[in-house]
């Protein structure tokens, strides 16, 4: 991979849709990467029992698919950012960035000089992307920061002015908690709706892509219409659950249909 197709898609004004992996299971990643039309997959280190050595197998499972792999790190930590990028992730998602200072620190940790201060030593980067990895790494690597606090919303123009930020991504539940309103994806509380729109509007002013964690394809479509460009639909575990529930619901509908037809035939006969 000499460039990041998600970056290119966003630069063209298109939306890029992926999903979260909360399982960190290489077999699941293999299916999603090679057998679906998702644009990317994010491994979620923040809230799940996934470690760096496990994640390497996820990267291997996705290799050859052409799909960029993102890592949501646990917090704004230079060491975490360096480690996940060094093993071959092509983007980072950093939670709870509250101001421009933190945003600059994230960019610095993710980029090699002169754009940042990322330490050199990625043996696997060279294996996965070639011996010229260090020359192209800054262009390949995407920086996604999460807007999850009302203070970040209040400072969104300053945050988006930081060079090197590719996406400002809203974490709806933590934002709701910060605002003091009920949590929930696809949140319709007026204060939450206004905060999200403020981020989207700022993104349009600054030319920075925005996104929000979505619960369904239907919500993803509405977010695209709203002007967002980068977001996951649910997660691997969430999609597995909803897929099973849909299959069982269709089974029940089929049984009801057969029963209705049997009853109808029976009444007609008599």
In short:
This protein has helices at 5-11, 26-35, 52-62, 78-86, 100-110, 123-129, 133-140, 150-154, 156-160, 172-179, 190-206, 217-226, 236-269; strands at 16-21, 40-44, 69-72, 91-94, 142-147, 167-170, 209-212, 230-235. The chain is an alpha/beta fold.
Plain-language structure description:
- The chain has one domain: Phosphoenolpyruvate-binding domains (TIM Barrel, Alpha-Beta Barrel), CATH 3.20.20.
- Helix 2 (26-35) runs parallel beside helix 3 and helix 4 packs parallel to helix 5 (100-110).
- The N and C termini lie far apart (70 Å).
- Helix 4 links the parallel strand 3 (69-72) and strand 4 (91-94).
- The longest helix is centred in the last third of the chain and has 34 residues, at 236-269.
- An eight-stranded parallel sheet has the order 7-6-5-4-3-2-1-8.
- The mean pLDDT is 94.
- It is of the alpha/beta class and 270 residues long.
- The chain is built from 13 helices and eight strands.
- The radius of gyration is 21 Å and the shape is globular.
Average of pLDDT: 94
CATH architecture: Alpha-Beta Barrel
Radius of gyration: 21 Å
Helix fraction bin:
40-55%
The main sheet comes to:
8 strands, parallel
- The low-confidence parts are none
Terminal-residue CA separation: 70 Å
CATH topology descriptor: TIM Barrel
How are the strands ordered across the major sheet?
7-6-5-4-3-2-1-8
**CATH class identity:** Alpha Beta
Work out the number of β strands: 8
What number of domains?
A: 1
Shape type: globular
- Percentage of β-strand residues: 5-15%
């Amino acid at each position: 991979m000499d460039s990041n197709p998600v970056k290119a898609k966003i630069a063209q004004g298109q939306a890029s849709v992926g999903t979260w992996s909360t399982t960190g299971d290489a077999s699941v990643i293999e299916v999603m990467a090679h057998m679906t039309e998702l644009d990317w997959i994010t491994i979620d280190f923040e809230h799940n029992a996934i470690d760096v050595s496990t994640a390497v197998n996820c990267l291997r499972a996705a290799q050859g698919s052409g799909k960029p792999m993102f890592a949501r790190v646990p917090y704004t930590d230079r060491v975490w950012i360096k480690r996940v990028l060094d093993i071959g992730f092509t983007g980072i998602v950093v939670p709870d960035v509250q101001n421009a200072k933190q945003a600059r620190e994230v960019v610095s940790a993710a980029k090699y000089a002169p754009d940042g201060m990322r330490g050199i030593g990625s043996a696997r980067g060279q294996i996965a992307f070639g011996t010229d990895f260090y020359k192209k790494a800054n262009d390949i690597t995407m920086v996604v920061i999460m807007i999850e606090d009302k203070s970040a919303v209040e400072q969104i123009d300053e945050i988006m002015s930081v060079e090197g930020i590719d996406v400002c991504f809203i974490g709806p539940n933590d934002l709701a908690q910060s605002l003091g309103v009920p949590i929930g994806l696809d949140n319709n509380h007026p204060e939450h709706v206004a905060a999200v729109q403020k981020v989207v509007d700022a993104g349009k002013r600054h030319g920075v892509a925005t996104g929000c964690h979505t619960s369904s394809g239907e919500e993803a479509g509405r977010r695209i219409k709203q002007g967002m460009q980068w977001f996951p639909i649910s997660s691997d575990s969430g999609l597995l659950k909803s897929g099973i529930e849909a299959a069982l619901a269709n089974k029940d509908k089929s049984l009801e249909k057969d029963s209705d037809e049997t009853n109808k035939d029976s009444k007609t006969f008599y």
